Amino acid sequence: MDEMQGLRDEVQRLLAAALQSDIDHAAEIARLAELTATDLADFERALASRDLIGQAKGVIMSALGCSADEAFVLIVKQSQHENRKVHDLAGEIAARTRRREDRGHQRDA
Predict the structure, then answer these.
(1) Among 36, 103, 106, 109, which residue has the fewest nearby CB atoms (within 10 Å)?
(2) 48 DSSP 8-state letter
(3) CA 88 and chain centroid, separation
(4) Model-level pTM?
């Protein structure tokens, strides 16, 4: 009888260890999924910022007839001068351009 109880105890110990391993794996998967969601959100913000900076560069290139690199340097210098983030300054440039375009379309209508 003691041998049978010993086997049962060993089986229970092994099952408990296997269950704990599964719980640990599930927790790690959940942690990685959370990190992935955070990384995705960071990537999306970076992509939006890059697009906004590209729009601002295009506005400056069109207005001044300069290259993309020169336009970017101008944005960076101005952001440093105003102690503002490049993204924020680029957003303002793009927004002002959109407002001008919207006013121009309203006059044409």
Answers:
(1) 109
(2) H
(3) 16
(4) 0.60
Q: Residue 52 in contact with residue 17, Cβ under 8 Å?
A: no
- In whole angstroms, give the CA distance from residue 39 to residue 24: 22
8 A C-beta contact, residue 60 and residue 66: yes
Structural domains counted in the chain = 1
Return the percent helix, strand and coil in the chain, to nearest 5.
95, 0, 5
The Cα–Cα gap between 75 and 85 comes to: 10
User: Is 17 within 8 Å of 25 (Cβ atoms)?
Assistant: no
CA distances, 99 to each of 5, 36, 51, 74, 77 (Å): 81, 37, 18, 22, 24
> What is the band of 38 on the pLDDT scale with cuts at 50, 70, 90?
confident
Q: Which of 62, 87, 91, 64 is nearest to 76 (CA)?
A: 87
CATH number at residue 40: 1.10.10.10
Q: Which domain holds residue 42?
A: 2-108
Whether the predicted pLDDT of 92 surpasses 90:
yes
